[in-house]
Design brief:
Blueprint (H helix, E strand, L loop, with lengths): L27 H15 L3 H13 L1 H19 L2
Helix pairs in contact: 1-2, 2-3
């Protein structure tokens, strides 16, 4: 498994490239940063969306986790 462990998103959501993927277990901070960016991107934050795209373009684990989160969110939204 390859992941990155970037610092949590800055309050200004500035574009910061994710570090190169490294082999390590997924940390809580890694997961939380990914969730934060996805939520912000889903609510129209263009900077967060760009950062998320940049991260997932270099990290296949992040890409897979985001895809799973989007599937899960879609399933939750379809519950009536």
């Amino acid at each position: 498994m390859t992941i990155t462990d970037p610092a949590p998103p800055a309050s200004d959501h500035g574009a910061v490239a994710a570090p190169p993927p490294t082999a390590a277990p997924i940390s809580e901070a890694w997961r939380d940063a990914l969730v934060d960016l996805l939520v912000l991107a889903e609510h129209g934050d263009a900077a967060a969306a760009g950062r998320l795209r940049g991260w997932t373009s270099v990290d296949p684990t992040a890409q897979a986790v985001v895809a799973r989160m989007r599937r899960d969110i879609g399933s939750l939204r379809s519950v009536r």
